[in-house]
Fold this protein.
Amino acid sequence: MPLLKKIKLIATFYSNISYVTLIITIACIWIFLKIGIASFAALFWFKLSSLALIYLYVNHYKSREIYYYQNLGASKVLLWTSTLVFDFTLFIVSLIISHYIR
Amino acid sequence: MNHILEADGILLEFNARRILSNIYLKCKTGEITGILGRNGEGKTCLMNIIYGNLNPLSKSIRFDSISVPQAFKRPDFLTYLPQFNFIPGHLTIKKIFSDFELDFKFFETLFPEYGSRYASRLDTLSGGQRRLIEVYSIICMDSKFSMLDEPFSHLMPIQIEKINELIQENRKTKGFLITDHLYRNVIKLCDQLYVLKDGTLHRTSNVSDIERLGYARLD
């Protein structure tokens, strides 16, 4: 499968959960800007737990949609790995930028 | 070019209850293979095993004699229409046709009622309209084989006729494996027909076998 098509599929999958994950990331940045580096550990585990909950929710309530992505050549492992890595990287990068802004 | 999909040596048990055993199934390009069976006999399990989403105690799935245990990673070989709605409802018809690389204009000539719905989200359509998009996508998508689990459910008779024509048209380049309880339609379409009973596939040689195997009463 061409790389561009794969990225588009991952983006479609991510768009399904991005509203929730981005709101959580923005909330974490706001808290980080208010409190500072002391809140990092708590925010880190909060973000990680929220991703775990989202993973469980989607796998339970939207498991049927995986067939759409599989029929187009994207496996469940590929979708989740890329989505979670991207979202968590975005979270860490946002915190680093916020740290320098602060 | 002709291709062969084979499934054999399948052994599936749930809590020591044997669901499938001694399965052998062969499907070729240009052929439509039908599977009939009572509810709970394991038709969907068999399709999920072939697709690689269900791991039995043993199995051998081969495409052109090459083992492919996880067929879901190869949509160029095999696509699968599950018996339930599987396309995310938030996607538009435009996006779906783009992802499956299908021509909406051709679809519109077959089903003109969709003409004004190109930009509509799938979850704004009725159950039957939504199912038709899913069935059409899998039948017409470019792959060597397609498995269709209850493709005629929720469809109107006139749509079923058109789907039959589409399957006949697409069989020129691919093989189909179909299961549906609209068995008369399946019988009409198929080149070879199996009945799944007591965990084993029985190949039928004539329609009276279907009655003998206890699936349907034919008049």
Q: What stands out?
A: The mean pLDDT of chain B is 94. Chain B has one domain: 4-212. The two ends of chain B are 40 Å apart (CA to CA). The helical segments of chain B are 43-51, 93-99, 104-110, 127-140, 157-170, 183-189, 208-212.
